[in-house]
Amino acid sequence: MPPDRKSLLVVGGTSDIAKATALTFAEKGWSVTISGRELPVAQAEAANLGLRMPGSAITAVALDILDTASFTPFLDNLPVLPDAVLLAVGLLGDQALAEQRIDHATLVMRSNFEGPCLLMGLIASRFEERGSGTIIGISSVAGDRGRASNYVYGAAKAGLSAFLSGLRNRLAAKGVHVLTVKPGFVRTRMTAGMTLPAALTAEPQELAVSIYSAVEKHRNIIYVRPVWRLIMTIIKSIPEGLFKKLRL
Ligand SMILES: NC(=O)c1ccc[n+]([C@@H]2O[C@H](COP(=O)([O-])OP(=O)(O)OC[C@H]3O[C@@H](n4cnc5c(N)ncnc54)[C@H](OP(=O)(O)O)[C@@H]3O)[C@@H](O)[C@H]2O)c1
């Protein structure tokens, strides 16, 4: 591997957005480590990416975002602390089920908030110690305001966005860049079967290009597609007395 090749760790490397982003980084010459909750699946993704990018440096590791006790040994066992980490783990879950079953609500909250934040916090401290690093966290516009249709997921993403904001504030002067990505709709496995408005729905490849560009430009928060920033500004500005009567 060339010594100047930058390295990306992808957490949730089997996600459709992660796969597209990993390919974009690999095309730009980065080495990529794909993490997935099952090693054979992560290895298959790594092999797939290697086939599409001959000559690239792609490896695979296992990590379950619910297994918080494994995070420190996971990081200790990485051959190298990466230059950047992409957090792409997420679980939409079933809002109606989460209202009925505490175990499902717990799973959604732990998958989108607890695990991601605890892992990013550990990585942030290692980046801080080294004096460099980029954290890319995929949150969601769903975290910008709680809505009846998905507020368990949305609240977990709101917590993730706040955590990333705190990391950014803490590490701005320490050489560590924190990028929060807020997609609207993206055509992936997560949204399969949903009827999505074409003008507001991005492809994973669009996310990948936007993320790479935002890393290069040291952006703080991006919305994909950008029109979502306007949409969420309007939604956030609706007075609560009116908002509670709406079904958006
Ligand atoms: N698609 C959208 O419209 C949209 C909109 C806004 C934000 N997002 C966010 O974008 C990110 C990527 O999602 P996606 O759309 O690409 O969906 P996806 O293909 O369903 O990806 C979800 C990823 O999370 C992983 N994951 C779930 N639980 C895990 C666990 N316990 N341990 C390790 N990995 C786990 C999945 O692994 P497995 O393959 O093992 O299940 C998969 O890699 C997520 O954070 C999502 O919330 C998506």
Q: Would you report the number of β strands?
A: 9
> Going by CATH, what is the homologous superfamily?
NAD(P)-binding Rossmann-like Domain
Overall average pLDDT: 97
Count of folded domains: 1
- Which small molecules are bound? NADP nicotinamide-adenine-dinucleotide phosphate
Unreliable stretches = none
Total DSSP helices:
9
Sheet having the most strands:
7 strands, parallel
Oligomer status: single chain
Instruction: Give the spatial strand order of the biggest sheet.
Output: 3-2-1-4-5-6-9
Order of helices and strands: EHEHEHEHHEHEEEHEHH
Structural class: alpha/beta
**What is the radius of gyration computed over CA atoms, rounded to a whole number of angstroms?**
18 Å
Distance between the termini: 50 Å
The CATH class assignment is Alpha Beta
Fold and architecture overview:
There is one protein chain. The protein is α/β, with parallel strands linked by helices and 248 residues long. It has a single domain (7-243), classed as NAD(P)-binding Rossmann-like Domain (Rossmann fold). 47% of the residues lie in helices and 17% in strands. The strands form two sheets. A seven-stranded parallel β-sheet has the order 3-2-1-4-5-6-9, sandwiched between helices. Strands 7-8 form a two-stranded parallel sheet. Helix 1 packs across helix 7 (204-216) and helix 5 packs parallel to helix 6. The longest helix has 29 residues, at 102-130. The model has no long low-confidence stretch (mean pLDDT 97). Residues 12, 14-17, 36-37, 64-66, 88-91, 111, 138, 140, 183, 185-186, 188-191 line the site of NADP nicotinamide-adenine-dinucleotide phosphate (NAP).
